[in-house]
Amino acid sequence: MTPTPETTLEQTLLKLQNIITMQQERQQEAIKRINLLYRITFIAIAVLILLMSVMVTILSSFLPQLGNTINQMNQYFSSITTDMETMRGNVDALRQHVSALPAITKNIDDMRSNTRLMGADVQQMGQHITRINQNMSPLTYNINDMTQSFYYMDQNVYQMRRDVRKLSQPMRMFNTMNPFW
Prior knowledge:
Blueprint: H1 5-99, H2 101-104, H3 108-177
């Protein structure tokens, strides 16, 4: 028996309907996958923005302290400069007193008075050196504090780099799936 044209047409329409249904199911599945990719992307971007906000907050909390430390160091350096200028004046005065020694050898009384003057200048120099040493101690403390602050900032930046790499891993998977890249 040969099939009639009506049955053949009916069978062909059924096959066409099955093909259209299968194609619609595939399309719905693709739409679901794309929606999932959008959600994952938006979540990853939100987490990345949150992490960057946290890092900016951390950095902004360290910057005023760093500025204060630098200002304090500048004050210490200006104090050291002042002390060095005073010491230079004392050394010049000492040099003048030493230059007078050959003439003082003729007169012992003049030598004693100049020696006293030299002793006072040396004592002033000792006082200035003591002040310089006192100013160096807080400077060393501030440098150590800055070193520690940079160490913690470095650790935070390293952790942020690891987090960004971990968050971008799903997007790298999609790059391998995309035929246009």
